[in-house]
Amino acid sequence: MLDRTNKSEAPDQAARWQPVYDALHEAIISRRLAPGTKLPEDELGSIFSVSRTVVRSALQALAHDRVVRLERNRGAFVAQPTIKEAREVFDARKLIEPRIAALAARLATPEDIRSLRQHLEDERDVMKSDRSGEAIRLSAHFHLKIARIADHSIFTEILRDLISRSSLIIALYWRSRDTTCKCDAHRNIVEALAAGDGAEASALMKKHIADLFSGLDLTPTENKPQRLADILGKSRV
Ligand SMILES: [Zn+2]
């Protein structure tokens, strides 16, 4: 789960909805639950053997993390990020993440670098397994870790939102299902941070975000109904 800003509720309450959140998040990010799927509270309640209140809390947290959409009087649905949103999210990331990387290169401590290197190991282990949802989650955390090292609260806040949106976008639009962020791209960024080379870290991050964006298949799907109409039209001739 991505870090949440709302930590006001009692820990025991959070503990009750967390497993529901985790199960749904994994199912959505690994695309077992398709975009637009309705998520009825009563049905989820009986599946997870929890109350509707607990389900509602999990759904609200998922909506906060942009993977679920809540509609007044209609309920919750798996989010369906548009191609326009995908472009906008990566445009914004291309602007702010190189700057974050440059700041992090200046501030990274040996402990930060150790933690990032450990993270690279974790990413490599997950990529060997067949857990695409977990791989996307870890990739997201890598970028947030760098933002935390950069110690810029506004950038971190903006990036947290962008990364939340990115996870589902990558899950839906990524061309090849094997990996998300390439390990070597992350590794090179860590080495630039370790060397305190802000210019290099910034350039590598810029390239990495551009590569991520070009790895998305953003072929417009709006044409699908038209194609359907064409097919139906031809079948009548
Ligand atoms: Zn990455």
If you had to describe this structure to a student in words, what would you say it looks like?
The protein is mainly α. It has two domains: 11-78, Arc Repressor Mutant, subunit A, CATH 1.10.10.10; 83-214, Up-down Bundle (Four Helix Bundle (Hemerythrin (Met), subunit A)), CATH 1.20.120. The chain has helices spanning 11-29, 41-48, 52-64, 83-107, 110-128, 132-150, 153-173, 183-194, 198-214, 224-236, and strands at 38-39, 68-71, 75-78. It has a three-stranded antiparallel beta sheet with strand order 1-3-2. Strand 2 and strand 3 (75-78) form a beta hairpin. Bound molecules: zinc ion (ZN). Zinc ion binds at residues 139, 142-143, 181, 186, 208.
The arrangement of helices and strands along the chain is HEHHEEHHHHHHH
Q: Report the oligomer.
A: single chain
CATH topology of the largest domain: Four Helix Bundle (Hemerythrin (Met), subunit A)
Kindly state the number of beta strands.
3
Shape: globular
Indicate the low-confidence ranges by residue numbers. Answer: 3-7, 222-237
Task: Name the helicity range.
Answer: over 70%
Distance between the termini: 53 Å
- Output mean pLDDT: 84
